[in-house]
Amino acid sequence: MTELRVVDVVEEQLDSVWEVRIRSFGPGGDRDHWLKIARASLEDGRLLGVVDGDELVAAARIWPFEQWWGGRRVPMGGVAGVVVAPEYRGRGVGSLLMRAVLRRCADKQYPLTALYPATTVLYRHLGYEFAGHRYKFSFQAADLRRLGGKGTAVRKAGRADADLFLKLAGKAHEARRSSGPLIWPRTEVESWLEDENNFAYVADDGFVVYNWSDGDLAVDELMAGSEETARALWATVGSGASIAKTVQAYCPPFDPIHLLAEHEANGDTQINRWMLRLVDAPAAIATRGFPDGVVLEADLRIDDPELTANTGDWHLSVADGSGRLTPTDPSSEALRLGPRGLAALYAGTPTAALRGAGLITGGAADADSGLDAVFGGPTPYMLDYF
Ligand SMILES: CC(C)(COP(=O)(O)OP(=O)(O)OC[C@H]1O[C@@H](n2cnc3c(N)ncnc32)[C@H](O)[C@@H]1OP(=O)(O)O)[C@@H](O)C(=O)NCCC(=O)NCCS
Predict the structure, then answer these.
(1) pTM of the predicted model as reported, rounded to 2 decimal places
(2) Domain 280-375 falls in which CATH fold?
């Protein structure tokens, strides 16, 4: 083994990346689709690798997402396809690669990064922590069919509606003060909408995208700005009840469908957890939204061994739905936390849980309820896996 180096993957190395992927995730997958995404990533400096001499032995990709936090958009680097060749595992190659990924996220000015962990150990060492879930519920199709909404006009949608879908989703997430959902690049939204296996419908204030999945119907996203539209769109999916007995749906646990459907979701809910890390703490605080009418002044002492620009004494001010993190003098009353505590706090994990896990210590006696109030809100969730 020569000295391992982190590189920007180039076109000639894509076959090797694919080979390491097969060894890591198993055979299958759409190679052409992967190649398209990999090429777009490498052209934009978002595909990193590790080489041993000339041999590519590890790779990781970064999606240029935005993510809703408190009803505002925050740029987020979504880390995917982290793979190390089997013969190189267990000797720090994954960590070397992920450190470079963090630096690249900082260079790209993403205040946040997130990922779905196959193993938490690697990512926790580098400051990621659990921040939210992706839920898949299943409902009886017959229940959805009966939801009505027949007075609402629903039309078939396609590629040309990508901007409209993004606009409708954005309006709803702002109004709901969502935390967690992703905003995909428009090119991806276009390719879902032109995929003949996806069925997309749009109403004045909502849309649905669904497809067939192993004999069931599966809703990837349903966004409705009113009860009538929710009824109409769910009923459109449920109209398949003569063939599909079950409709699977990616949605949060507080989605109105739970209050509209006659029977509760089946007991087979699937949950995946995703992790978050703050890359640039002041930018992450300044960009997200906070609940209106909640005010907080608190000192923080952040120790971030990987991204040292976050390390220091900070003052957090929250008022009028916005927050600021500014450098300040050391204080004996400062809340002490590292990147994992910071990520979990940002995502609204109750301070009692963070203290219970040792992820925050110290702080003014009365600060916890204020922190819970400013970072709390609708539970963070994602609809998509990446
Ligand atoms: C997961 C993977 C990327 C780790 O790469 P690696 O080069 O072995 O990682 P490192 O040697 O830098 O290990 C970093 C830490 O993670 C731990 N770790 C690595 N793989 C682990 C696993 N499968 N289970 C538990 N801990 C693991 C290591 O023990 C080490 O922790 P330690 O210092 O406390 O011992 C690699 O095993 C892999 O490619 N696996 C298959 C694909 C995959 O699961 N990718 C992740 C997708 S999110």
Answers:
(1) 0.97
(2) Nonspecific Lipid-transfer Protein; Chain A (3.30.1050)
